[in-house]
Amino acid sequence: MWSSYLYVAQRLTAFVLAPLVLVHLALIVFAVQDGLSAAEILGRTRGSLGWGCFYGIFVVAAAIHAAIGMRSVAAEFLRWRGWGLEASATCFGLSLIVLGARAVAAVVL
Amino acid sequence: MTHPHRNQPLWWAFALHRVSGLGLACFLPLHFLVLGSALNGDAALDGVLAWTESGPVKLAEMGLVFLLALHLLGGLRLLALEFLPWRDGQATLAALAGSVSLVFAFIFMFNVI
Amino acid sequence: MNRADDTLAVEIWKGGTDGRLAAFEVPLRANQTVLDVVTWVQRHRDPALAYRFACRVGMCGSCAMTVNGKPRWTCRTHVAKVAVERHLTIEPLRNLPVIKDLACDMTVFFEKWQAARGRFEGRTTRHDEVVQLAPDTPARVAIDAGIECINCAVCYAACDVVAWKPDYLGPAALNRAWTLQNDTRDAGQEARLAAVAGDAGCHNCHSLQGCVAHCPKALNPTAAIAGLKRAVFRAALSGDL
């Protein structure tokens, strides 16, 4: 039953991520025409509540989505089962949230 | 041992979705660390970004754009498959997702060169 | 290899899981099926060869084997369609324990059928009136799409998720569960939904569609499993799981 709820979380975060990734891709492909610079990135994001929320939601959804995905890969390709698998996937997700929150704080605050 | 039963387009669509997801999950911590370097001031972030100007890194970035587009479009195909009424032509949809991802990657490459 | 134009080079699996391929030369015939080839080998070359068949007309689902790497119903597979340069490799089905030669132990396959609660559970007795099922309702159409399964386990052998996660219920059992979830006369739908939402359940499917590609009856277990996934998704969100 537990993995059913993970499936639901995987699909819910996918629904959240789809439009966010689309905007992210558009920014990467079309907005970064003349090279990346800290001034350009930070000029857009510093003090912006909108971009803060955008990247905040992005980080949480991506962390959950990636952790559940990695759990499936480990279970299927490494035949990993049990509490070790659950603990590792949880640690991976939490690390992503911490690192991601730090990154969002760095570019927004 | 070869597995001829796998040689069908949707098996490869699955393989690409898995590989792109794995690649993105491995890249994500690095991505966050780079952006986090802005905590140490603009110059620190610029220092890392200067490194991305080199050729091989640019090629790797193009690969990441391709993986992200592929995982997004492949994921949208799976959501449509699971949540909308069934439609045939799954292999066509998968091929479409792959081609559009390549287009994204090439536009990115032409923009940054 | 030097051989006459009217013969077929056949390699057949002999032994258990740790067996090996044995080579045979079989006369080529018009309209010959793969099952005909296996039967010829047993009658003329190797009387101890173990394999299963019953109806020979694609109804009983007992003759499935791996032919040149792909799972197939051998009684309805013509040699002309699958032989590569007059060569055939015939092995037992994947994902099932081999008993001997081409005969697999189907126990797990049928146990999973039961674990997915793939049996009709009535709520009426012989004293009640027969319930009508209108043929054009969406539920009845969904049942029709999946009901022709002959339990041959070709989909189960083609499924890589079963290979990677041996507990996974698999396409056949879940396809059966979906037909019953659409049956308005069935009384076991709540328990069945819980069964297919378990850790071995429908959400393990990654829609690789090997089952769809290889099902000899042209059924679509992936679409059935997607239906179950939607039902589990709804139940989880509304707290009914």
Q: What does this protein look like?
A:
- The complex is a heterotrimer of chains A (109), B (113) and C (241).
- Chain A has 109 residues and is an all-alpha fold.
- Chain A has one domain (2-108): 3 helical TM bundles of succinate and fumarate reductases, CATH 1.20.1300.10.
- Chain A contains four helices and no strands.
- Chain B has one domain (12-112): Up-down Bundle (3 helical TM bundles of succinate and fumarate reductases).
- Chain B contains four helices and no strands.
- Chain B has helices at residues 9-36, 42-51, 55-83, 90-112.
- In chain B, helix 3 runs antiparallel to helix 4.
- The longest helix of chain B has 29 residues, at 55-83.
- Chain B starts with 8 loop residues before the first helix and ends with a helix.
- Chain C has 241 residues and is α+β, with helices and mostly antiparallel strands.
- Chain C has two domains: 7-104, Beta-grasp domain (Ubiquitin-like (UB roll)), CATH 3.10.20.30; 107-237, Fumarate Reductase Iron-sulfur Protein, Chain B, domain 2 (Orthogonal Bundle), CATH 1.10.1060.10.
- Chain C contains ten helices and seven strands.
- In chain C, helix 3 runs parallel beside helix 7, helix 4 (138-146) packs antiparallel against helix 7 and helix 7 (171-181) packs antiparallel against helix 8.
- The longest helix of chain C is centred in the last third of the chain and has 17 residues, at 221-237.
- The termini of chain C are far apart.
- The mean pLDDT of chain C is 95.
- Classes of the chains: A mainly alpha (109), B mainly alpha (113), C alpha+beta (241).
- The interface between A and B is large, with 37 and 38 residues.
